[in-house]
Amino acid sequence: MESEALSFSDHFLIAMPNMADPLFARSLVYLCEHGEHGAMGLIINKPSGIAMAQLFDQIDLKLEQDPLRGESVFFGGPVQPDRGFVLHSPVCSWQSSLLVTDDIALTTSKDVLIAVSEERGPEQLLVTLGYAGWSAGQLEQEIADNGWLTVKADPSIIFGLPAEQRYDAAMALLGFDPALLSGDVGHA
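Below the sequence we write its predicted structure tokens.
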């Protein structure tokens, strides 16, 4: 009987307080895919400085929904920073979607944004430019080197909290005070 490899899909990666890489310091990553070929996820707590209205203008779509116009587009990671990624719930049948869970999908095709502009898009969405990626074994090594904490993702943190509260809310899922963490790696 083959054992199934550990997958962190639908988990949060929480940057350890000692994360030296400025791109990932205090980052909360939602992992969309993780397997033997590597991992990909979106940083969900770093606004890019671009509002949804600006993004829609750039791709020649109208965005009439007032609440969405001022929402931030997020810096999803350093890979393909000129490409949009839409994390959304519920799952619908868009041209290019990765099913993460029964309720959450990642879509990269423009049809989801067209649907949003026509007020028939998903109920909950988070739009990023770029994503975070790891080659085979790289993420596992970073976790072993004490770079990341992992915890099962909570969609209410992704879609229901302001960006500046997401990191601490994900830390709270771990059930301990992050101030007690040490950045040192060691063996007993």
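The two ends are 32 Å apart (CA to CA).
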